[in-house]
């Protein structure tokens, strides 16, 4: 009877005992008093400002938390890469000299590529919360860990949006560095899967001035597509929109989709102001989606307090959240790494010895001995942070990539839906769908209505006739006979006639202008060859031809015709053999065999009637001759559908 409480008490003792033993154990491994993380990013940037403060907060929180890294003080050594590739590399080397166990950053994808090679050699894990370039997933960069979702997913989200709105071609406007180029390549691949494509890639160099961007946008405006995907850096992105606005490209008919940089810019300033908001009315942008949680709400209000107190200059954006979680991820992993009894030891690599006469102190770079153990711990992270569940799949990708889709209007943004790798587009939050079986029915894929540029709610068509000076070339036969159909004219159109009237009336029904020029074919003193005219359309000398052109099989093989609009209609002319004039011509409709079958049926029906009737009907009796006559007679009655009447008369 008393055994249950006793058993419970035993468990309690065991639990307490295990805990004490564990603590004893970890302390026994002489944890270091302090350890350092490196941090590399551009402090004076949209992402960097938020990230810097988020990292400071995270380090403070880790040091204040007795359960993680007890007895060890976490330091972060921050270096400003100042948006410069070369400077960034030097800074990275300077950080490596300080025996850091992991590096948080860099912000730029270009630096991430270079530094990945350095950390591969030194076995120092690189945790980047901002380098979203999809090509960094390469297996070559084994010490690179991305603690944010790759642009691969963002580009798939955009491709799904393009498909949802039924556009076929987009123009990509991007900054031509690793980040921009790789992102747009991923977009091209994602669009190809949806049978859409990038019709034009408009690249401009990093740090381009206004004139360069202006030239790029003027070029873009001449293109057929009116759907623009803008994938640029947060710090120069608004320039693109301010120039687009000046060029009148933020009006109705245009579609602007900005990648998550625009959301970061808007999130980073407490109140962007009407000057900024006016530039981007009607644009769509994406934002890294992080599920709402008590943890996140508390952090957001704490940040807001500190911002009001002037401790930081930037509002919180998605990158700030990821930067905060990255520090915690590192802290948890180092904690487990130390619990395993691993050492924070560094050793010199003889291959780094200075070459003769060099003043680069490469020999001060030392390899982190247990770097691969820490890497393993980092990749097996599994905890809930501000950005939700942080866990890596077997491809080193954070699980559950998801984005919010925002529409900018008025003084703020409006969320029109979500995209997640699992459920594609939806109006319900992604985490509400993760547990459920995938519903691929197209009705599920939906977004709320968008207010497009020009304050219209009708979905832009997405393309126009390119006004880059190329009207349609319409070939018109210039003949000497039947000039009512088409002929030369001295009017503005150059041509006149019935066919031209029909063509112009049809153009009027098209809801957009179709620039065209008529080009005469032939010299008016002889009839031109229509076969040649059709061939010229096929050869692309003309874009189309208008005139009294007959639709014949040969021509339909090389061009498409409209429905015929003159009296003759669509006719097929076939050759026939000469008509027979013999008196037996009436036999022609049926073949000889058909006549035989008809005769056989005639007899057969007579026979059937005779068989049925001769037992009961006196008319079907008598001599064989009489009966045969009756058979023929009833059969012929039948043939004339008068059988019954004949019969009744007889009765
Ligand atoms: C574990 O702690 C006990 C007392 O709490 C102590 O006697 C023992 O020496 C410790 N063991 C180690 C390995 O530090
Ligand atoms: C930060 O950047 C802004 C513009 O991007 C510039 O005006 C300012 O001088 C920069 N500050 C520093 C300290 O570099
Ligand atoms: C960053 O670079 C700019 C020029 O690109 C320079 O004016 C500025 O002084 C640099 N800031 C730092 C902190 O190095
Ligand atoms: C850590 O260092 C100690 C001595 O300094 C050594 O006994 C131990 O084996 C090392 N542990 C690992 C995992 O290398
Ligand atoms: C450096 O130069 C000295 C003589 O100038 C030579 O003996 C030595 O081998 C050189 N070391 C290397 C690493 O090349
Ligand atoms: C991660 O943690 C959650 C609970 O926090 C647990 O349900 C899940 O199984 C863990 N995943 C792995 C791979 O350990
Ligand atoms: C994304 O979705 C695909 C297909 O459902 C899946 O194979 C992949 O693992 C997902 N990726 C992540 C990071 O969840
Ligand atoms: C999928 O979603 C549609 C629309 O919401 C719903 O009608 C349908 O029942 C769903 N199918 C499944 C299998 O849940
Ligand atoms: C008009 O073109 C035909 C061939 O299409 C040619 O035979 C004729 O000589 C030309 N007439 C003039 C006046 O050029
Ligand atoms: C049809 O076209 C073929 C080759 O394109 C040509 O040889 C032939 O003469 C044409 N027939 C007619 C009736 O135009």
Please, could you describe this protein's structure?
By secondary structure, the protein is of the alpha/beta class. The protein folds into four domains: 32-149 and 307-353 and 361-391, Response regulator (Rossmann fold, 3-Layer(aba) Sandwich), CATH 3.40.50.2300; 151-292 and 399-444, Response regulator (Rossmann fold, 3-Layer(aba) Sandwich), CATH 3.40.50; 472-556, Periplasmic binding protein-like II (D-Maltodextrin-Binding Protein, domain 2); 590-650, no CATH class. Helices cover 40% and strands 16% of the residues. Helix 12 (318-339) packs across helix 13 and helix 19 packs across helix 20. The longest helix has 26 residues, at 3-28. The protein is elongated and about 130 Å long. The protein starts with a helix and ends with a helix. It binds 2-acetamido-2-deoxy-beta-D-glucopyranose (10 copies). One 2-acetamido-2-deoxy-beta-D-glucopyranose (NAG) is lined by residues 523, 525-526, 528.
